[in-house]
Write a structure and sequence with these properties.
By secondary structure, the chain is an alpha/beta fold. It contains 14 helices and 12 strands. Strand 5, helix 7 and strand 6 form a beta-alpha-beta unit. Helix 4 runs parallel beside helix 5 and helix 10 crosses helix 14.
Length: 378
């Protein structure tokens, strides 16, 4: 089956590269192939393009280009942001049980080397109780980690309020914005974020490239995790992935110009999909239906095994959890943390739409899913 025959509703896992992004990248594989760190004219020409991409990327999140470190993606950015604080006197981290595993497993590593980590629960709608957060942060807390938009449910947290609570105790605030950047307006200064990881492939850029925004306050505390030629202000050594960086920059530029129109169209399609699927008796949406991003719905079809449904859908690509484990017999840790039973967690499907999704695809998905869930529930 060709990719063109697939109805792709797994955009929180990855997105199709925008052709304009691809076209911007192609010359840097062949015509402008010099190392961006080289001091000859060819290298300087490439470096100028990299600096422009840094400016485009920084502009997308309200930052300055010298506050951007390019990485291989959000997972590496998260590792640098958290492990990079290993040499600080404070050894206390506060995070949330519904975070992406890139955060949770990195925090578990920090526990193994002597840090104390508190994993806060959420309410059943996936929203963090701010009073509970405030109680958890002490004068010894080094870092607070709360994601902006949940990758499985789309639930969004009150980031500005969270950053204010963290900063009141002089703690740094890291916000995993992987599912938000490029989709909704993000301003690190306005929101008070110290460390912000994200990936290009979540908003129509290439895989294998991401970035970490680092505030001046956080920069002086970070220890590099990759050592070598001291590239990127000595915080992340290694030859720059120039085509990827150019792609991230172009994807950022496009997002700035088209984000609002994309949101309006995708929201309408998401609501169309959700309304149709909730015709199945007993089905319900996981997570808060107001405080969530516009492209995502996570729906439970009680008594229907999601793994069986995903396989039966064949040409319709959806997920039952994180993109790190799209088809798994284990219940989602996010849904479990929100209080769902194992049975309901294993009966839940995430649908995540993108700018290439069409109304015709949504109608076909509604018809196909409803037919199958009715068959599988008998």
């Amino acid at each position: 089956m060709s990719q063109k025959q697939i109805i792709y509703l797994d955009n929180n896992a990855t997105t199709r590269v925008d052709k304009r992004v691809l076209n911007a990248m192609l010359p840097y594989f062949s015509d402008f192939y010099a190392n961006a760190s080289s001091s000859h004219i060819a290298g300087l020409t490439v470096n100028e393009a990299v600096e422009n991409a840094a400016w485009q990327t920084a502009k997308l999140i309200g930052a300055q280009e010298d506050e951007i470190i390019f990485t291989s993606g959000a997972t590496e950015s998260i590792n640098l942001a958290i492990k990079g604080l290993v040499n600080q006197d404070r050894k206390h981290i506060v995070t949330v049980s519904t975070e992406h595993k890139a955060v949770l497993k990195t925090c578990q590593f920090m526990e193994s080397i002597g840090f104390e980590v508190i994993y806060l629960p959420t309410a059943s709608n996936g929203i963090l109780n701010l009073a509970l957060l405030e109680q958890a942060i002490t004068g010894k807390t080094l870092l607070v980690c709360v994601m902006m938009t949940n990758n499985e449910t789309g639930v969004q947290q009150n980031i500005k309020a969270i950053s204010e609570i963290a900063h009141a105790k002089n703690a740094l605030f890291m916000c995993d914005a992987t599912q938000a950047v490029g989709k909704i307006p993000v301003d690190v200064k306005l929101l008070g974020i110290d460390l912000l990881p994200f990936s290009a492939h979540k908003f129509y850029g290439p895989k294998g490239i991401g970035a970490l925004y680092i505030s001046a306050k956080a920069k002086i505390k970070l220890t590099p995790q990759i050592h070598g030629g001291d590239q990127q202000r000595k915080l992340r050594s290694g030859t720059l992935n120039v085509p990827g960086i150019i792609g991230l920059g172009k994807a950022s530029e496009i997002a700035i110009n088209e984000m609002k129109s994309d949101e309006e169209r995708i929201l309408e399609l998401r609501n169309q999909l959700e309304k149709g699927l909730l015709h199945f008796e007993g089905s319900f949406v996981n997570g808060d239906r107001a405080e969530r991003i516009y492209n995502t719905t996570n729906i439970c079809f009680p008594s229907v095994n999601s793994e069986t449904l995903i396989l039966a859908l064949q040409h319709i690509a959806v997920s039952n959890g994180s993109s790190c484990s799209a088809v798994t017999s284990e219940p989602s840790h996010v849904l479990k943390a929100m209080g769902l039973s194992d049975e309901n967690a294993l009966s839940s499907i995430r649908f995540s739409l993108g700018k290439f999704t069409t109304s015709e695809e949504i109608e076909e998905t509604i018809e196909r899913v409803l037919t199958l869930v009715r068959q599988l529930s008998q």
